[in-house]
Structure formats: C-alpha cells, structure tokens
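seq as requested:
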Amino acid sequence: MLFYVARRILLMIPTLFGILALSFAIVQFAPGGPVERVLAQMQGQDSGATSRFGGGGGSALANAQASAASQFSGKYRGAQGLDPKFIAELEKQFGFDKPPLERFWLMIRHYAVFDFGRSYFRDAPVLSLIKEKLPVSMSLGLWMTFLSYAISIPLGIAKARREGEPFDTWTSAVIIVSYAIPSFLFAILLIVLFAGGSFWQVFPLRGLTSDDFDQLTLLGKVKDYLWHIVLPVSALTLGAFATTTFLTRNAFIDEIRKQYVVTARMKGLAERSVLYGHVFRNAMLIVIAGFPGAFISAFFTGALLIETIFSLDGLGLLSFESTLNRDYPVVFANLYIFALLGLAINLISDLTYAWIDPRIDFETREV
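struct tokens:
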C-alpha cells in the first residue's frame, strides 16, 4: 500500500503541471486583462474591479501621463492617448513585461512553495485572502455535508426496507423534485418565507454573524452564528442529499438480496440484527468511502449563488470576482489549491475503501 500511495503522490506533480499549463495557455488568448481593466477604470468605463488605481488619484495619473501617440494603442483597448512609459510601467507592475514562458516558469517555481504573490486589485497577499474567505466556505461545507448525510443515510435505509411500498414511491418523488430545483431557487423561496420577503421575519438575510458579534457571550455567539446559517445551509442541503439517499437505498437493496442475509434470517436472527449487524457494513462501503470527496466538494462547488444571495463573502464569491476582474494571481491560486485538494481527496477516498474493506488491494491494479 505504501508503494501505491507514493506512486499516486508522484503522479500528482505532472497532473498539477498540466492543469496549470493548460489554464495559463488559455488565459494568454482570453480577451481583456488587468492592464486593460486599469485603463478602462481610469477612463470611467469600468466599475467592476476593485483596483489600487481606482478613484481620483488614478484619473489624475492617467491625465498627467497622456500624450498624443501611443505604441500600445493596438495592443490594449483604451490605451490611445496615453504615454507609452505609463503603459510599460503598468505591464511591469503586473509582470507582463516578461515573455509568457518565463512568467509561467516563475509561477510554477513560486507555487511549488505555496507562494501565490499578491492580488492585482485588492492590494493583499493572495494566501491571506484565501484564509480570510475560507471560514465562510468551511461553515457552509461542513454543515451541508453533515446534514445531507444525517438525512440521506437513515432515509435511504428506510426506503430499502420498504422497497416498492408507497413510502418508497412518494419519498422518491419528493427527492427527485428537490434535486431538480436549483439551490438558489430554494434560497429565494426561504428568503420570501422566513427572511422578511413577504411573510415572516424569522432569520437574518445577510452575513454569517451580527454586527455586535464580538460583544456577545460565548453562548450568544453560538446562537447568533447558528441563527445566521439556517437559511443558506438549508438551501444547499435541500438539493444535496438526493444522490446519497439513492446510493444508500440501492446499496442496501443489493446486500439484502444476497444469500448471507437469507441465511441469517433462516437462523432466526432479528431483522434489526440482520440489517445493522450484517448488511450495514457492506452496504455502507461505497457511501462512506465517498465521504471525503463529498466533504471537500461541498466547500467549493454550488455555493457561489448562495454566497451572493445571502451576502456571504466566501471562496466561491472570491473566485468569481477575481475571474471577472482578471485578477490572475487569485484565479490561479484558487485553481492550484482546488486541483491539489481534489487529487488528494481522490487518494483519500481510495484509502478509505481499503480501510473499510481490507479485501480491497490497490497494489494489484494499475493506477
């Protein structure tokens, strides 16, 4: 097993390299960029980015550097009439004064030691931005994963025990409908019903904590935190437990039909003893082994709209805004971290399989 783990870890290196290389190449051909973003802001044509050049100081600097001719007018939109030296300074500040290949190798060298540089438009280290936004995404991911598994596993077992009965039929219909409706629609419905939209003002609409959170007692902080996360976590959970529920149901049905279960029943064992003493471990193998992947994916997928609707400043919103603003250090840092986590979680999932069922041996198969 140690040889298998070492081989998988070594394979992560070329995989990460390929992901970053492909993404970097695509960015080179994408229209727009941080230089054009700054130029558009200084000319009042763009208010979407949070730039260190924004405001009156940036406009004064642009006017002071204006001249009749610009060799960059064909390279950057909005560069007409600006001093070439000023454009060159912008390129140097963003690192675009170097050839693309050199910039890529510098990025790879820095990312190898988790040095992600500074954000172009937030004037802060990228790693500190990610650490700042991570608690919000962790809160959503942890609670959504816990609640979805807490609901789906008992429900899946109950459906397997009542296969073909009315309970199985109508719960399947409800689960399919909830899975088909996007989480953001659930979020809007919850706001309308419980956040003062049209009916009751029960839960807050914005943020993860109240403004006076620091002045509250420990118990008050816990209550305030839970009070704020009820709606966003509910919206995410309603559309998240369908897959695990059906997976649990089908796994239990497959195990219940096997000969060892029939033999256990013929020996006079109670149904509960058969179900939880014999069936549970084998049936839950695939469900439990998939937990690490579901846990991590809950952090980074499907939460963008929820974060936007409930004004939660997490990683999803950070990645989205950084992409719009062409804040490449933040974009590539998020891509690198997510890809690394995804590869690590795939390895952990395989090891979880082997831990739950020792009969599984990855040493005998090809990676």
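The CA atoms of residues 209 and 225 lie 5 Å apart.
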